Amino acid sequence: MVAKVNSGQNILGLLNYNENKVKKGVATCIHENLFNCNLDKLSFYDKLKTFQGFITRNHRATTKAVHISLNFDPSEKLSKDILRGIATQYMDKIGFGRQPYLVYQHFDAAHPHIHIVTTNIQQDGKRIILYNIGRNQSEKARKEIERDFGLVKASGKKWNEAEVINAVDVKQAVYGKLETKRTISNTVRFVTRSYKFTSIPELNAVLRQYNVMADLGKEGSQMNLKRGLLYRFINEKGSKVGMAIKASTIYGKPTLANLEKQFKVNEVLRRPHRQRLIQSIDNSIRGKESVTKSAFVQALAKDGIFVLFRQNEEGRIYGLTFVDNKAKVVFNGSDLGKAYGAKAITERLTNLNSQTPIQFQPAVSTWPEKSTETGLEGAIKDLTEAKQHDFSSPESAMKRRKRKKRKGRSI
């Protein structure tokens, strides 16, 4: 089990975050504490009123909302009764047993997980101190609950407290059918944390499988000169569609400056996987004087490899990029050796002008295992849609919007 505790100011935003999930059919409220009413009879107002009854007892506290997520191994099949028992025991152990709280079971990830909404303001108006609660009380409770309920242990890797451990099934995006910010954010965060690429074009080779791209802007444009970076949807032809999302607004900030630091590390981390890619390419054309482009693409796809033919405006192929979705590495053909560059490979291929469809190989993140790498392998936090306020994550939902003061004299 992996537990994560976050705190903020806005209980309304946090409640909205989970209730929006319920409305979308990807969550359900399974347990309440101190609400003195059956769940099916609790309205949104009833839930908010109970929380406010505690929160209004302390006007000085800046932190009044607490969000907790408990995440379980994908192999575990946990009933609602077991999840209620785990939530109750966890809240008792971290000192929130006498606080009002709601437990939501979410179904929008590849592993079982629950979200708990509560407040740290007690009935007498005093605050429950949250300092180091994740490292101390929560960590102790997690280990005891793993033992008591026979859960898969999450020990063996150090977790960044700023992240939630979600094995989200990132799917190929279709513009107009999925919420833009959530889908792009999920995809970008998964790819940038999981794959080892050394340039923006290599990153785009991976993102293309998900109908997403990283956009540096036109050469000479203000965005390009200021080294800005946007992420956006693309259609089957690779053309931009829909609104763009700023890199700085995505959790983890996959900006150009941050990615460039990652390029240097990835250059080293991808090396051990180079030979597997070479072997797969050799196997796809071995013993054949020529092979069709389609057959070449399909043969590599069976081995989890996507090949991108880079073409200029005249349609001439000037480069190849190989994405190994099993090893999660990206190489340009020329980086593998002269025999794997665009010129050498295309000389052995026929029907080069055929439009071979992209073979999408969804690479789903798995439950954490012990790793010798430096933390680039991560997981994607669960996001949802943004409405009047930003409910794109529990953390942003708890933040109050600051109103900008207008300059000038009032009349």
How are the elements arranged and paired?
Elements: E1 2-8, H1 11-23, E2 27-33, H2 44-55, E3 65-71, H3 80-93, E4 101-106, E5 113-118, H4 137-149, H5 180-194, H6 200-207, E6 212-215, H7 222-225, E7 230-234, E8 240-246, H8 256-269, H9 274-285, E9 291-292, H10 293-302, E10 305-311, E11 317-324, E12 329-332, H11 333-336, H12 342-346, E13 349-350, H13 394-397
Parallel strand pairs: 9-13
Antiparallel strand pairs: 1-3, 2-4, 3-5, 4-5, 6-7, 7-8, 10-11, 11-12
What do you see in this structure?
With 411 residues, the chain is of the alpha+beta class. 31% of the residues lie in helices and 18% in strands. It has 3 domains: 178 residues, BirA Bifunctional Protein, domain 2, CATH 3.30.930; 90 residues, no CATH class; 79 residues, no CATH class. The chain has 13 helices and 13 strands.
